[in-house]
Amino acid sequence: MGITGVPVAVEVDLARGLPAFDIVGLPDSTVRESRERVRAAIRNSGFEFPLARITVNLAPAHIRKVGVGLDLPVAVSILAASGQVPARNLDRTAFMGELSLDGALRPVRGVLPGCAAARSSGSSCVVVPFENAREAQCVSGLDVIAVGTLSEVADYLSSGAVPCPARSRPERPDSPQSTASCDFDQVMGQDAAIRAIQVAVAGGHNLIMVGPPGGGKTLLASCVPSILPAMDDSEALEVTCIQSITGTVSPAGLARKRPFRRPHHTVSPAGMLGGGNPPMPGEVTLAHRGVLYLDEFCEFRPQVIESLRGPMEDGFIIVSRSSGRVSFPSRFMLIASANPCPCGYLGDPERACVCQGASLMRYRRRLAGPVIDRIDIQIEVPRVRRIDLERPVAFLTSDSVRHEIEHARERQSERFCRNGFTNSAMGPRHIESIARLAPEARRLLLDAVDQMALSARAYHKLIRVSRTIADLDGVDSVGEGHVLEALQYRTLDSEPQAVLSYG
Q1: How confident is the model at residue 173, as a pLDDT?
Q2: What are the angstrom distances between the C-alpha of 36 and each of 33, 76, 103, 468?
Q3: In 101, 187, 210, 455, which residue has its Cα 20 to 30 A from 161's Cα atom?
Q4: Mean pLDDT of successive 10-residue segments in the chain (503 residues)?
Q5: Which parts of 337-455 fold into alpha helices (H)?
Q6: Which long-range contacts (CB under 8 A, 24 or more apart) does 42-46 make?
Q7: Could you give the CA distance from residue 351 to residue 260 in angstroms, rounded to a whole number?
C-alpha cells in the first residue's frame, strides 16, 4: 500500500469437475489476465497443465491485488499442487515476476517493497527475474535467487541448483553521489542568494526566489544538487522504494543521489500529488528526501499551488480513489522561483513595469497567503550589476558551501538522534527546548512578529531558520545575529502594503 509492500499468500485447490481456472481474492484485470499467461508458460516450459477445476486464492482477500508480479507465484503454486515440484521447498520462499508465454521471466515493478514485506513476513529467500536482482539485493537478510525462466525456478525447487550464481547474487550496490553539472562558481553577483540557499539546504527549509528575468534564479536552483548532502541508508531505501514502484530504479541498485524534480508549470493536480488507478506517486512523492523545484511559480494553476499546503506541512500525501486509499511520503524541500509581476520588472530601477493593476493583483496574490506562509525563506534576486559581471573568479564554490552544510547536518543528526530529521521538521512543542534562543534574541523576534504582523506559523519558522544559521556557525545558542539574518529572509511578509498599492 503506497510504498509499503503487502505479502500475498497464493493458495491453489485442484478439484474434480470440468476444467476451469479461477482466481479469487479481489484481483484486478491484470491479475485475472494472468490465467492465460500462466497456462501457456507452464505448457511451453515442458510441464503439464492440470486438467482440473483450479481455484487460486490470493490472501488476504480484502486487499485489491494489482500488477503482473503474481504470475510467477501462481504458476509455481499450480506446479506444486499438481506434484510437479516439491511443495515442501516453498516454505519461507517468496516469488515475484511476470511470465511470458514461452515461460521466460520479465522484470516487474515494486520488487524492493515486495522484498521488504517478504522479509517482515518471515521469508528467508526470494526468487526474482534477473533484471530485478540488484534491486532485491538492497534488502538485507534475504537470499536473492535470480532466474530467467520458469524451468529454472522448477530446477531450483527440485534440486536446489542456483542458476548462474554470479548473476543471481550480485554485489551489493553502493553507487556514489553523482557530480552535478552546475557549480556555484558559475554564478555571478548573487552571493546573498547563495547564502540563503545554503541555509535552506542545511536545515531542509522551503525557499522562494523573486526577481526580474535574467537575474540567475534558474541557474541558482540548478546548482542546488551540487550541495545536497548524501542520503543515509534509511533515506536511500525510501527513495529506492519509490523508484521501484514507478519503474525507475537505477541499474546500480540503491539510490544515493537525492531526487531533484522540476515539473513544468502545466502539471495537473494529479501529476503533482499522485493519482491514477491504481494510485501512483506524483511529483511531491518523487521528490521525497530531495528537492521539488517549481520554476515560474506564479504560472502554476492555483489549485496546484494550494494543493501543496498539506504535503509541505505533513510530510505525506493520501490519495483516495474508488479502488482504495494509499499514503505516499512527501518530505521534500521546496524551491520556487518567480518574477515579481507578469512582465517581470516591478521595482526594477532600470526598466519600467508595464503590467495593469488588475493583472498585477491577480499575479501577486499567488505570492501571498497560506502557501507562502509555509515557505521558510523568501528572498529577492536582483539584477546582476556590471561590476559583478566583470569579476573574473567567483568567491563561492559548491564544494565550500557543501562542506559547511554537511557540518550543520551532522549537528542536527546528533540533536535528533539520527532519525533523519532536520531543523525544518521540528514541531512547535520541541522548538522551545531545541532552539535555545538567547533572551535578547527572543525579545528581538517577538518585536519583529508585532511589527510585521507575522502568523504563529511564521514565528516558528523564523526560530527554525535561526537554529539552522546557528548550526552553520557551529554554536549551541541562537543569538541576535542569527535572528536578524532569519528576518531578512521574510521579504514577502514585509511588503503587503506595497502589493496592495498596485490595485
Answers
A1: 44
A2: 6, 15, 12, 59
A3: 101
A4: 86 94 94 96 96 96 91 97 91 95 95 94 94 91 93 91 54 44 84 95 96 91 94 91 90 86 94 87 95 94 91 89 82 94 85 85 79 90 77 74 95 84 85 85 93 88 95 94 94 54 34
A5: 357-365, 370-373, 386-389, 398-415, 428-435, 439-452
A6: 42/75, 42/78, 42/79, 42/103, 42/150, 44/101, 44/102, 44/103, 45/102, 45/103, 45/149, 45/150, 45/151, 45/154, 46/151
A7: 34
> Contact 320/192 with Cβ under 8 angstroms?
no
Q: What is the reported pTM?
A: 0.86
Helices (runs of H) and strands (runs of E) counted in the chain: 23, 17
- Is residue 340 within 8 Å of residue 351, measured between CB atoms? no
Sign of CA dihedral 89, 95, 97, 100: positive
C-alpha–C-alpha distance, residues 417 and 414, integer Å: 5
Superfamily of domain 184-496: P-loop containing nucleotide triphosphate hydrolases (3.40.50.300)
Angle at 401 between CA 193 and CA 178, to 5 degrees: 110
Cβ(68)–Cβ(34) below 8 Å: yes
- pLDDT value of position 124: 93
Three-state DSSP string of 151-220? HHHHHHHHHCCCCCHHHHCCCCCCCCCCCCCCCHHHCCCCHHHHHHHHHHHHHCCCEEEECCCCCCHHHH
| Domain map (residue ranges) of the chain | 9-168, 184-496
CATH number listed for the domain at residues 9-168: 3.30.230.10
User: Between β-strands 98-99 and 105-106, what pairing exists: parallel, antiparallel or unpaired?
Assistant: antiparallel
Rounded CA-CA distance 73/83 in Å is 15
Per-residue confidence (pLDDT) for residue 168, from 0 to 100: 42
Q: Are strands 316-321 and 324-329 parallel, antiparallel or unpaired?
A: antiparallel
Residues 6 or more apart whose Cβ sits within 8 Å of residue 132: 96, 97, 107, 108, 111, 146
> CA-CA distance, 227 to 195, in Å (whole number)?
12
C-alpha dist (Å) from residue 384 to 213, 258, 380, 488, 492: 10, 30, 12, 19, 21
Q: Is the distance from CB of 247 to CB of 114 less than 8 angstroms?
A: no
pLDDT of residue 500: 34
Write down the pLDDT at residue 167: 45
pLDDT the model gives residue 172? 44
Chain length of the chain: 503
pLDDT of 95 reads 97
For residue 218, what are the contacts with CB-CB under 8 A and spacing of at least 6?
A: 295, 337
pLDDT value of residue 367: 78
State the Cα–Cα distance between residues 37 and 105, nearest whole angstrom. 11
